[in-house]
Amino acid sequence: MRHLLSTQELSRPDALQILDTTEEMAAVTEREVKKLPALRGRTVVNLFFEDSTRTRISFEAAAKRLSADVINFAAKGSSVSKGESLKDTAQTLEAMSADAVVIRHGASGAPQRLADSGWIDAAVINAGDGTHEHPTQALLDAFTMRRHWAKVRGISSVGSDLTGLRVAIAGDVLHSRVARSNVWLLKTLGATVTLVAPPTLLPLGVHDWPVEVSYDLDATLEAGVDAMMMLRVQGERMNAAFFPSEREYSRRWGFDDGRLAKLDALGLKDTIVMHPGPMNRGLEISSAAADSSRSTVLDQVRNGVAVRMATMYLLLSGSPAQSTGPESSERKKS
Ligand code: NCD
User: Fold this and answer.
1) How confident is the model at residue 23 (pLDDT cuts 50, 70, 90)?
2) Distance from residue 62's CA to the centre of ligand 1 (Å)
3) Ligand 1 nearest atom to the CA of residue 53, by list position
């Protein structure tokens, strides 16, 4: 694995290797000294063309915990046309000898373009591209689910997958790269997925995805769910009215207090409630649900750092050909 661009193209062995390495990284982040020397002398560039709080900070914390040097490049607001600016920026980063570029971009496919272009030699990590993919988010979600599912089954999470886990992903699937990355990865790991949304917020072609589709959140809960993932209503990507009103949306598609109580009434005592953040409290998720003991929102954030450590570790120090010795800088110059 040279880059991490999507989960659609992530093999099952690679996915399991990242999750197992994440277990080791999580153990490091629980120590008093949360640092490993693994990427000493390597440079990681955070190249963010779109707003982000938790993802950027998470990658920064992960790189620092592996002792890499981190450069934050907030490219948002550049007036240069997109293709050109990406190339110019990439060549600048190459000149600065970046070993890994973490890129978030509003255009679907930008990370792939960067990886395929030959403009840079660095490993490319997709931190969210348009409505396409957000692979590290799906990996941290899968890691969170895997730990939970292993606990429910009374087995060790290391080496295990998500066979038998019933996941429902509800809300703005149309605009969600998180939903797409989750669908592919969950399929690879053996979970079953139901997408729940109003028809206007489902993409064309969704019936070709490896999922069930439902328009009724209550019916989906009644059928039995182990992990309920709520998606943010992505107002910034909407240029039309996709639902009548916010009130109507939260009544039909939101995980509100009534649906939280419903999990108890249905005897679903182990069901977790997930959200990638940032949350619109009161819209797709109620505060009581977001703060309840079923909520894994903060676990997801915590696990995000460990997943990104594992990803960078595997990409940058995984193969002997990319070792950290001085010969690797020689290789770059040649
Ligand atoms: C997600 C994103 O940017 O795609 N958020 C994140 O990575 N923290 C989901 C979202 O913005 O709704």
Assistant:
1) very high
2) 18
3) 8
- 288 Cα–ligand 1 center, Å: 21
pLDDT bracket for residue 83 (50, 70, 90): low
Share of the chain above pLDDT 90, in %: 80
234 CA: nearest ligand 1 atom:
12
Strand duo 212-214 + 166-170: pairing: unpaired
Please indicate, yes or no, whether the overall pTM of this predicted structure exceeds 0.85: yes
Q: What integer best gives the mean pLDDT of the chain?
A: 91
Q: For residue 196, what is the DSSP state?
A: E
Domain architecture of the chain: domains with CATH? 12-133+300-333 (3.40.50.1370), 135-297 (3.40.50.1370)
pLDDT, one tens digit per residue, over 255-278 is 999 999 999 999 999 999 999 999
Q: What beta strand segments (E) does 75-191 contain?
A: 100-105, 123-129, 166-170
Determine the pLDDT at residue 155: 97
* Measured distance CA(102)–CA(111) in Å, rounded: 9
Give the residues surrounding ligand 1 with Cβ less than 6 Å away: 54-55, 128, 134, 137, 177-178, 232, 234, 276-277
d(CA 32, CA 308) in angstroms, rounded, equals: 19
Ligand 1 geometric centre to CA of 287 (Å): 19
CA of 303 to the centre of ligand 1 (A): 15
Tokens of residue 278, six digits: 């940032």
